[in-house]
Design a protein that fits this description.
heterodimer; A: 416 residues; mainly beta; two-stranded antiparallel ribbon; 11% helix; B: 306 residues; 22% helix
């Protein structure tokens, strides 16, 4: 009996302690949670410290629409400097009157003595280039843009089944972006927008061709006029474009019997489309050209270009794109080998979007060649960026000799 | 057990029951804070509706600053020159429940990125992908982006800042469950403290295991938000300041996101804002990305509302 009472007393004691603890803990937990959630933050951030200080200098008063840039570019191949250039750029744009817009983009490039362009001319020299110098007027559903500009058609990047209006400047170094080597022309471009339908027309009074060197050119690059237009229809997730143009070819070729450089004058019919499905983007370009001069012959034939591409963004935001492009002569009498090209690209942002890594690989079956570029672009701050590229290529010449080329390119750019 | 012990135990039991019921009453009272009582879900739905209303027919000029931060004089401060992006945006809500949205943003600063334009159409219907287009002057044309809303798509940072696409989106209230944790005063305002936990569907595409909101009970706007990573550790703290009433809607014009893992913060300040303006549907199309004369003419008229 005594043992029972003793044990019971002990159990009651334990129970008492337990119940008191539960009560205390229960109410205190609620209070602790409440106080944590409702207490003021100890560390606060004063966003007023982010307001930029106006020092009164010209730098602070510079119109935002004026952009100045300076760039130094160096490209080194084994045993040889491929490029050594200093560039200054000026861009300005202004909506100077309601319904009007002006844009200027010019750059001056100095080619130092060891640059391949300067070596060709046996002296260093400077060259002024105008990328944009146009005025745009917009009224109701249409606009008109007149002046020096580029016009880019087509959907599949890195292929040229439909993207054949603006020529290229091959004195520029191509890293991974073909837009860096485009050549602007004096053009008149009009566009109208009617809901899901867009139309565009263009006229180029004196078309230009691809540029391979600045001085000592072997052919007259300015030819006659070009004109054309396209109709684009949009729907949710996709679009399709029909285009027609009367053009000169951008690239001269050697023809017989004169062995002179010659350009094709032709009609162009094109079809382009892009369709987005989830993380996939499908792209198609089809281009039909008449009267294409066949190299090293005295003949002409129609050609059909088909380019198809896919772009895919992974769950971790890697962006891949692949393009296949085939170019075929439509000539029953000739044994002409179609040309095939494949391009593969990749890019991804890292380090809070400060670092962009990209790669571009090209392969062609006929002519036999392949090459690639690995590019890293880093933004040090809002003004300074550097590009570092490793590129290599290999092609077989007419004698089936393999010609490898490698280069490392560094570009430092300041924009303010 | 003797009678005295029984009585003592009984009293303690009564006290215990009383304390439990007191907690239950407190918990219950958070679900019935005021009359009429609102559940956590109802509060969040109301907040979401107001947020979408704020994005309806709106023109804004925003400054987004991002920097690494440290503690200086017991205050959080940038320890480096902040990266600044200034953008002008026009947005409009549409659809039966005003959950579809169209928005266009043009970057004005920094100089190297000036002129970049983005057009985005987002849809409430989960079977419709988000559509977006990008214009860069270097591109010379409008490019359609592959931006599907994949179930496992990693949230994308907004211009390299600590704001992600997940932080900015609206209309996803069905993908969380909600509970009111507490109510009381915070920063001089009466608030509900609401916890949101992602559902299975949401868990596959979010970086967060839960979110906690401090919701102003009178104005139905968040004053603070904390997000927690998959290990339930505090990940980001978001503070909403400069609360103003514009066109009958409470707006936070200063939002700061502090990423406590990376020790970086981003601050979005709405320098100018006009709401309830008339936005021409044709303005939120691809034309605006390339027809600069049209864009500036239309923006000039809209800016008069600032």
């Amino acid at each position: 009996m005594m043992n029972y009472l003793s044990t019971t007393k002990k159990n009651t004691g334990y129970l008492t302690v337990f119940l008191i603890s539960s009560f205390f803990t229960g109410t205190c937990s609620a209070q602790l949670l409440a106080s944590e959630l409702l207490e003021d933050d100890v560390l606060v951030f004063d966003s007023d410290t982010l307001q930029p200080a106006d020092s009164g200098s010209w730098w602070d008063r510079k119109p935002a629409a004026l952009k100045l840039s300076a760039e130094q570019l160096m490209s080194q191949a084994p045993g040889n400097v491929a490029a050594l250039r200093t560039r200054a750029g000026l861009e300005y744009e202004d909506a100077f009157y309601p319904g009007w817009f002006f844009r200027l983009d010019i750059r001056y490039t100095y080619y130092w003595r060891t640059d391949r362009e300067a070596e060709r001319n046996r002296e260093d020299y400077g060259e002024l280039q105008t990328n944009d110098l146009w005025v745009q007027y917009s009224q109701n559903d249409c606009n008109l843009k007149v002046g020096r500009q580029t016009l880019i058609w087509g959907e599949v990047e890195g292929t040229f089944a439909v993207d054949i209006v603006s020529p290229f400047d091959y004195t520029e170094l191509l890293l991974t972006d073909f837009n860096e080597v485009r050549l602007a022309q004096d053009m008149l471009v009009g566009a109208c927008f009617f809901g899901q339908v867009q139309t565009q027309i263009f006229f180029t009074p004196e078309a230009l061709t691809d540029v391979y060197r600045h001085r000592g050119k072997t052919y007259d690059e300015k030819v006659g006029s070009e004109w054309g237009g396209r109709l684009k229809w949009l729907w949710t997730g996709g679009d399709i474009t029909f285009s027609y143009a009367r053009l000169y070819s951008n690239q001269p070729i050697l023809v017989l019997p004169s062995y002179e450089s010659s350009l094709s004058r032709f009609h162009f019919l094109g079809l382009s489309s892009s369709i987005a499905i989830r993380r996939l983007l499908f792209k198609l370009d089809i281009g039909y050209k008449t009267d294409q001069k066949i190299p090293f012959t005295a003949r002409e034939a129609d050609t059909l270009d088909i380019a198809a591409g896919v772009e895919y963004t992974t769950a971790t935001n890697h962006n891949f794109n692949i393009g296949v492009w085939t170019n075929e002569y439509i000539d029953d009498d000739a044994d002409l080998t179609p040309e095939h090209y494949v391009t593969f690209g990749w890019n991804k942002l890292y380090l809070n979007d400060d670092l962009t890594m990209s790669a571009l690989v090209n392969w062609s079956k006929e002519p036999k060649a392949y090459g690639g570029t690995l590019l890293s672009q880093y933004k040090w701050d809002d003004y300074i960026s550097t590009d570092l590229a490793l590129s290599w290529s290999e092609y077989k010449d007419a004698n089936q000799n393999t010609n490898p080329e490698k280069a490392i390119t560094l570009k430092v750019k300041v924009v303010f | 057990m003797d009678t005295r012990s029984l009585w003592a135990s009984g009293m303690l039991m009564v006290l215990l029951v009383f304390s439990v019921s007191l907690r239950a009453e407190n918990a219950g009272s958070t679900k019935n804070a005021e009359s009429p009582s609102l559940s956590a879900r109802e509060i969040v739905d109301k907040m979401d509706a107001l947020q979408r209303q704020a994005a309806d027919s709106t023109l804004s000029l925003s400054r987004l600053s991002t920097c690494a931060f440290g503690i200086k004089d017991k205050r959080v401060a940038c320890v480096e020159e902040p990266r600044v992006k200034v953008m002008e945006s026009v947005s409009d809500q549409s659809g039966a429940s005003m959950k579809d949205s169209k928005a266009i943003s043009i970057l004005l600063e920094p100089a190297s990125e000036r002129g970049i334009g983005m057009l985005t159409y987002t849809y409430d219907d989960p079977n419709r992908d988000t559509e977006s287009w990008l214009y860069l002057s270097a591109l010379g044309k409008v490019k359609r982006m592959a931006s599907g809303t994949g179930e496992d798509q990693e949230p994308v940072s907004l211009f390299g800042s600590e704001f992600t696409t997940e932080d900015m989106e609206t209309g996803k209230t069905d993908e969380y469950t909600y509970e009111i944790l507490q109510e009381g005063p915070y920063g001089g305002r009466p608030v509900w403290v609401i916890e949101a936990r992602p559902t299975e569907i949401r868990l596959r595409k979010t970086n967060y295991s839960k979110l906690i909101f401090w919701v102003d009970r009178e104005r139905f706007i968040a004053l603070k938000m904390q997000t927690y990573d998959k290990r339930e550790k505090l990940y980001k703290r978001i503070i909403f300041k400069e609360i103003e009433k514009i066109n009958g809607i409470w707006i936070a014009r200063d939002v700061t996101v502090m990423n406590l893992r990376s020790q970086r913060l981003s601050n979005m300040q709405t320098e100018s804002l006009a709401m309830g303006i008339t936005v021409d549907p044709d303005f939120l199309t691809q034309r605006t990305l390339t027809d600069f004369a049209y864009r500036e003419k239309a923006l000039g008229k809209l800016r008069q509302h600032f």
